[in-house]
Every structure is written in C-alpha cells, then in structure tokens.
Amino acid sequence: KYILGIETSCDDTSVAVLKGDPTSGQAPEVLAFELFSQEQMLAQWGGVVPEIASRNHLDKLAPLLDVTIKKAGVTLSDIDLVGVTTFPGLLGPLLTGLNAAKTISLLKKVDIFAVNHLFAHLEAVHLTHEVTYPYIGLLVSGGHSLYTLVRASDDVEVLGSTIDDAAGEAYDKGGKLMGLGYPAGRIIDDLAKEGDINRFEFPVGLKTSKDCNLSFSGVKTALRTFLEKNPDYYVKSPEDINQDTKDICASYQHAIVSALKLKLRYAIEKAGELGHKNLPVVVGGGVACNSYLRKVLKEKYKNVFFVEPKYCTDNGAMIANYALRNYESRIKYPATLSIDARSRFINKKEHRKT
Ligand code: ATP
Ligand code: FE
C-alpha cells in the first residue's frame, strides 16, 4: 500500500509517502519525506502565532504535496490511504491539513485515517526499530509530556503526565529567558555539551512525589529568579555566549533530564503493578532528540529505544506510519468528508469511528 501522510498540527508543514504492508509488521519504506519548517519565520515572534502558522500552511502545503508525491515516484491515483493529524494541535493549522486530505479523498475516493499526533510521535519508533508491544512510552514534545503504557498502536494508557509545562516548553521558555532564541531545545542541547552540570543548582520538579507526574514550571521560575539576580548572564547578542552561558544551560538541562529519568522509574514501577514487568521503553517527541537525555537514559536502561532524530519533531512520515499501522480502522470514503479536527488530547479511541 502507498500511504500519504500530512502533518500541520503546529508550525511545521510536512508531507511523506510511505510504502508498506499493514499486515506484515515490518517497517514501511519512506519513499519521500519533505518538511517546511516555520521556525525562522516564527523566531521573530518568539513562538508560534496560530494565525500566522495557519497562513503559512496554506501557502506551503499544496506545493509540498506536489513535490513529495513526485519525489516518491508515484501519482495521486496510487495513494491507498491518507493519514492526517486531526488532534491535538492548533485548530487553524490542523484544519489546513485536514481539508487537503478531504480534497484528495473527494477527488480520488480514497480513505483517511485521522491520526492522533501524540501516539504517532511514539509509534514513529517502528520506522527504524523493531519494538514489541506492550512498551512504556515516554512522549516529550513541545506541548506534552506523558508516560504511557502502549499495549497496541491504538491502545495507550496514560500512566502520568506533566501537571503544568511540557519538557519542550521548559527548554523553549528557559531559552527565551536567557535570550537564546526560539525554539531553544537544540540550542541549549548544543551549548550544554561544553557546560558543567554541577555549576548551578536548579530544582527537579515533583522530586518527592512517588508517581510519574512531572512539573517544569518550578525550574523555569528558578531560572527567571536566578537571571533577575544575575542580569549579566542574559545573552543580548551571540557574542555574549560564554562559559557561564554553557554552565547555565548544562545545569538547567540537568534538572529537566533528571526529572524525566526519575519519573521513568516510577512509570516502570506502575506498569509492573499492572502486571507488565521488564518492558522496553520508547522515547519520542521533539525532546527525544536531546543528546543528554539519550545518554542518561541509555546509561541506565538497556532496553530503551529512541525515535530516530529526524522523525522526533513533527513530520509527515510518522503520520503516514501511524495510519499504515492502523489501516484496518481507517475511515472509508465518503464518511471521510465529515471528519473533524480538535485541539485537545482526550484519550479515547475516537479515531476508530468508521
Ligand atoms: P506536541 O507534539 O506536543 O503537539 P510539538 O509538535 O510542537 O508539540 P515537537 O515537534 O514534538 O513538539 O517538538 C518540538 C519541541 O522539541 C520544542 O519544544 C523543541 O525545543 C524541542 N526540541 C527539539 N530538539 C531538541 C533537543 N535537541 N533538545 C531538547 N529539546 C529539543
Ligand atoms: Fe508534535
């Protein structure tokens, strides 16, 4: 089967064409994968502006679809299924992708799979690794941070989650406070490589609660207070970046990663109480690109799998992959034309509606 994946839930417009067999359990082949990132455009606003993001998707999506399908060496008529993110995300951006998918469905009478963006982030691991169910999924992205028990591709139980900011937000907001630009995850990751994790102390959120919930608002506030007391550390221009900046990045990142590591232990314990011992761990979402998180978790756990960095941040390949894995519960044309998008994540098997 040929699967077209469309992702427009936030600020990245991405399209991919995959070839795979939904029954084989084998990794599909990524025939083409294109991404248009709005990062540079949105950097000047210091974050995502939903209205601007929607307009950018409208501009970029049609040409991107054209290019990707050509690069894959197929035509629109070859596509057997369209996978499109329908939740969670920003409503305007989601609707641009969904309407493109519906147009294709209308033209070619193809079916659609309405993709849960978060599950797709985790399941992207199968693009490059063989991981068996059940597994413990740690999703760390720009808008969410969750520990899950993944029993099957569409059977995901949330074991714990952040009670305030997401891990990616902790990076982005921290970077903004320091004057490092947006999005700051990769910038902090790079600067921290030459920094001292022990130079400054930042708090690990919910350190004493023996559950797998997370909190990142405290570490962010601690950084704000610290910078108010030490305004010289603020980076006004790239020339201001020095050893102090690197040490702050390393110490701040250490607090975030320590929380993720600590709470993973409780997530594993909780899965054990549910009768699932020694499960593999899968880490996905944009923050799964982080080199320090990768190092720390790989040192502690043998059976941990990270989504390939190019499939960690938002991309069409993970959306097509998820649609392919759930091929049997696709929505058939013409019911496809009444699919809706929504902004929030509610963990119900709503995408099973056919
Ligand atoms: P969600 O998936 O929750 O809707 P999103 O799609 O915006 O949110 P992703 O695209 O999965 O989020 O990830 C983006 C986030 O990943 C940003 O917060 C970014 O700073 C962070 N990120 C990217 N690379 C790194 C890195 N190397 N280290 C830490 N964080 C990173
Ligand atoms: Fe995402």
Automatic annotation (TrEMBL):
The free-text function statement in the UniProt record for this protein reads:
Required for the formation of a threonylcarbamoyl group on adenosine at position 37 (t(6)A37) in tRNAs that read codons beginning with adenine. Is involved in the transfer of the threonylcarbamoyl moiety of threonylcarbamoyl-AMP (TC-AMP) to the N6 group of A37, together with TsaE and TsaB. TsaD likely plays a direct catalytic role in this reaction.
Which gene name does the record give? tsaD
User: How does the cofactor attach, per the note?
Assistant: Binds 1 Fe(2+) ion per subunit.
Where substrate binds, per the record, is at 139-143, 172, 185, 189, 290
- Decide whether keyword DNA repair is in the record: no
EC number(s) on record? 2.3.1.234
Keyword annotations: Acyltransferase, Cytoplasm, Iron, Metal-binding, Transferase, tRNA processing
Domain Gcp-like residue range list: 30-320
Question: Under which name does UniProt file this protein?
Answer: tRNA N6-adenosine threonylcarbamoyltransferase
Q: Which reaction does it catalyse?
A: L-threonylcarbamoyladenylate + adenosine(37) in tRNA = N(6)-L-threonylcarbamoyladenosine(37) in tRNA + AMP + H(+)
